[in-house]
Amino acid sequence: MYQLDLTIFRWLNSWVGVNDFLDWNILFRAEYLLYVMIVAVFLFYAFDKNIGRVKLAIIHAFSAGILSRFVFTEIIRFFYDRPRPFDMPAEALAKAGVLVNKLIEQSPGHSMPSGHASFSFALAMAVYYYYPKTSIVFFLGALAMGAGRVSAGVHWPSDIFGGMIVGIFSAWLINFIFKKLK
């Protein structure tokens, strides 16, 4: 394990169990913020009169999200099965000085890259191509969701970083394909 991964994980995961509000906040970001982001993509219909651009943005966002989460992430996980923090052997965690405070239930294994992070960053990057200023909110949401997943004890920080790379690359690839098809 990398020292930076351990340091960031220890700090974020130490917030679990401090009080009910923080636990609720972490739980919301780790489990539900991605769904809020998905719904937010459809809100462009309400605020943009250019329906053609809205449709392209939605198709781009969900194509990139599906490509990143269900294709690239699964291919990487097939070749690299990294255990989640709570799934690490107790002696390895003790040696690294890590105590995992697990806030949500998650199946063991397949931690790298984070599927949640890959999907949310793919959405954010796809939104960037159509609504650059609004994409800042999506990128902040993706970062908050990633921090929530680490805080909840189900991912290492580098899993989120890996998901970010996969998601951004997927949106870029879909954008490249769209431009070639025009």
UniProtKB/TrEMBL annotation:
It is found in: Cell membrane. GO terms for cellular component: plasma membrane. It is a multi-pass membrane protein. Its main location: membrane. SMART domains: acidPPc. PANTHER family: DECAPRENYLPHOSPHORYL-5-PHOSPHORIBOSE PHOSPHATASE RV3807C-RELATED (PTHR14969:SF62), SPHINGOSINE-1-PHOSPHATE PHOSPHOHYDROLASE (PTHR14969). This is Phosphatidic acid phosphatase type 2/haloperoxidase domain-containing protein. It comes from Candidatus Giovannonibacteria bacterium RIFCSPHIGHO2_02_43_13.
